[in-house]
Each structure stands twice: as structure tokens, then as C-alpha cells.
Amino acid sequence: MLSVSVIRREGVDLCEGQVLARCCIGDVCADIPVDAGVQPGRYSLEEAEKDPHLSKCMYILSKQRETGIKRIEVCRSRDAGRCTKKLAEYVVGKYGGPVLLIGFNRSVASVLFSLSDGLVADVEGRLMPYEFIDISNPYQWLAQARVVVVAPGALHHVDLAELVKKAKELGKPVVIYGALSTLYKDLGVEYFCPYGLRIGSKHI
Predict the structure, then answer these.
(1) In this structure, what are the phi and psi dihedrals at residue 113, rounded to the nearest 5 degrees?
(2) Fewer C-beta within 10 Å: the chain N or C terminus?
(3) Core vs surface per residue 18-33: b (16+ CB within 10 A) or e
(4) What is the enclosing helix (H) or strand (E) of 135?
(5) Between these two residues, 137 and 38, which has the higher pLDDT value?
(6) d(CA 161, CA 167)
(7) Shortest CA distance to 76 belongs to which of 195, 200, 204?
(8) Mean pLDDT over residues 146-158, rounded?
């Protein structure tokens, strides 16, 4: 069974229209951004696999089990501001801009784009002060960016392997932030999470 409980309605890991859910299969648990319409409860694995919002949870928990990590928790709310500042300083300090941000988180965008210009790829077009593009096809904008930053909440909406492949072809680094980011290091991305918690047979 997949158990889902909503634990937070704001945070740097989330994109607009999402909540943070603690998803567990047995003793393997992770804090995962899900659509705000997802109902807490227990779901059969077959039911969860067929649900477009829960299937990503299943995928993440499967990758987590493979890496031997039993629990992934996002940072505490009081650490979120420091995390956002560190992320922006790291990305812009190392790569400069423009930055292509995949997935809109208001606090991350606010700090990141105070240091650099760039674009946001999101599910819905939004108003200024940011320039938004459709997340279903961010690839055409890769050439304009010096670096690509991926929000955990965007993992539901973008084919990360394809994004990384196309970015590498253009020589663009990809940075994923948040506690879940370590699960994707096999793609050759940089992962950034100074305050999240990962507990398992090996500490990462």
C-alpha cells in the first residue's frame, strides 16, 4: 500500500498549486510535492500507478529503495530562507546567468532573479515580473541560458532525462535542488540540498 499524508502547504520544494506529502511504502518514506487535489489516505499500488499524480511518488520511492535510503525529509521551514539564499548564490556565483528555472517557486524565483536574469518554465503562463515559458517544451530555450535549475515540484511535469540530455548537448549544466535531488545524480546533474535529511543504509 502507498500511504499519503499532507504535511505542508508551502515551502521551497513546491511549485504553485502543490502541497508537500509524506509518501510511504512500508518503511520507505519521502516528502514529495504533489498536486493540491491529491487526497490523503492509503492507495493500492495498482491504483497509485494509474494515477498521474501518485505515479511519480511510486517512481521516487522505487528509486529511493534502490539507493538504500529509507527516509527523505525536506528542510524545516526555518531553514528554507537560508537554503534559497545559498542556492541562488551558488548557482549565480558558479555559472552566472541567464538562468532557466524549471518550475515556479515564488521565493526561489525572487532570490534567484535578484542576482541574475532568466526565464521560468511552468505549467501555466503567469504575469510579470517574471518571463514564463511553457514547461512542456523548455528545450528551445536552453541555448539562451547559462545554467538550468530544476525545482523538485517540476519533476511531475518535465522529462528530466530528456532535459538533461539536451542540456548536455549544448554544454549547459543542470542543478536540481531539494532533498529529492540526490536520487537523480545518476543522470549527471548537480544536486543541491544543504538542510534536507536523508537516512538509510548509507548516508549521502
Answers:
(1) -85, 5
(2) N
(3) bbbbbbbbeebbbbbb
(4) none
(5) 38
(6) 10
(7) 195
(8) 91
Domain edge (last residue) among 32, 57, 73: 73
pLDDT digits (tens, 9 = 90+) for 101-132: 998 888 899 999 999 998 888 766 554 466 67
Residues 156 and 171: their CA atoms lie apart, in Å, by 24
- Residue 21: phi and psi, rounded to 5, are -115, 140
Side chain identity at 49, as an amino acid letter?
A: E
Tally the domains of the chain. Answer: 2
- pTM to 2 decimal places: 0.87
The answer to the question of residue 52 being in a domain is yes
Cβ atoms of 33 and 139 closer than 8 Å: no
What are 17-76's pLDDT values in tens digits?
A: 899 999 999 999 999 999 998 999 999 999 999 998 899 899 999 999 998 899 998 877
Phi, psi for residue 31 in degrees, rounded to 5: -85, 115
Q: Does 191 fall in a domain?
A: yes
What CATH number should be reported for the domain holding residue 139?
Answer: 3.40.50.11590
For 100, the grid coordinates are: 532557466
Residue range 138-143: average pLDDT?
Answer: 86
Q: What is the mean pLDDT of the chain?
A: 87
Residue 37 lies in a domain: yes
Q: Are 33 and 54 in contact (CB under 8 A)?
A: no
On whether the CB atoms of residues 152 and 189 are closer than 8 A, the answer is no
